[in-house]
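Newbie here. two chains, one complex. Structure please?
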Amino acid sequence: MTLIIDNGSLSIYDDTSSGAPKVYGTDWRLFHYTDGISTPMTGTVSTPTRTATRTITSSSNVHDYVDIDVNTPIRSIHAMADVVRGQFFVSTSGTAYGVSNIGWFDASGSYVHYLGPNNAALGGPGNVSLKSIASYTFYASGGTLYLNERVRLDAPRSFSNGVYRTILNGVTFQYSLRAGTFT
Amino acid sequence: MATFFEVSGQLGAAAIYTSSGGDEPLYDPLAYLSQTKFHTGLAYQYRVSRVTGSITLPAVAADVSMWSLYNTDPAASRLFAHGQGSIPLIEGRITSGLSRLVRLNGSVPVQVGATGLGPQFPRMVHLGADATHVYLNAYGSTCETVGWPAITLGWSVDIMAVSTGANGGFDAVPSYFQCGPFDSRRRYMMADAPGADEPMTRGVTFYMSRPGPDLTDWRYSVAGYVVNNGSITTNTPYTLVTT
């Protein structure tokens, strides 16, 4: 091995391999944490119940669907933090909607909570289209830790007059997170 | 702005930073992060261990809404006991069973129904960990006419740690560099290094839109692994890393 400190970087080369490849260098960007370093950032954040409603009368069919993209600030973090790591636990009052209450989820990327097909309970067809989805993402931007809530809900169709709803119950995230960046 | 390499015995730290003369980044790298290229006191993430294995997700019949492996067989979603005593930092990937190696960024679609209405309906997997175990949560909805066949996925999960504290002293020898909590012999998570081929995402990975009544288009697209239904074309930004 050879260690070279030169030109603003520290590098280590493996002289025992053909071509003496560089095996470590401070000019390679390393990932490090800026927030939640000694202990993770913990807490809870909740989203409200979302409801799509279809009201059918003899003369009208009014569909109030849900198509939202909401960013909820959770707390201030380092201005350069752009990666969120850690875990969260999901709970909700409804067992039929989503995969909550089964454990902890890694906070990287989007968590898809609900995949809602056509509602067969009203006597119509079964899972013939995937019309409702709920997805949540923790992310870091501009010195703030956010929860992104992306929800699409359509209410059931029916041939009968009445009020029909697709309800996504409120979701609570118990989180244990860190934020960081590459330097 | 010049680049400095500075070692402080008093601080037990070494730093590489750009500056027009002051040495503030040596003393407080987080406050001067835009000038800091490297600092032994930063909380770098490194790999402690790597565990590998495989999991078989069972076949699921047609017309099943919100199936989950946990609700089918709670023990089946446990990958291994990690023995860390608290919730660990983890990094994971699917190593076999899909079209390519797929890093576990969020909820990853691994199957859709094969025909007819099926492509709308994904089965997802999502890595997770509690204080005792690492899990692969699997769930999804099938369509009225098509389910999913069983699938076996190879997986690899890294238990990670963060370099903190003042231990370690200072040692710069031809084979390694050690200062404070930093030790170049560890497997730190790095970008721009040879072998950095796993995409680490920074935010939303699952996109959706409403093309019309009773339809939701969706797309998961990270570094060439694309599973989608509909017309969305968004690709998730990522950084290629290695550990």
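Moderator note: Chain B touches chain A through 88 residues (CB under 8 Å). Chain B has a mean pLDDT of 92. Thread marked as resolved.
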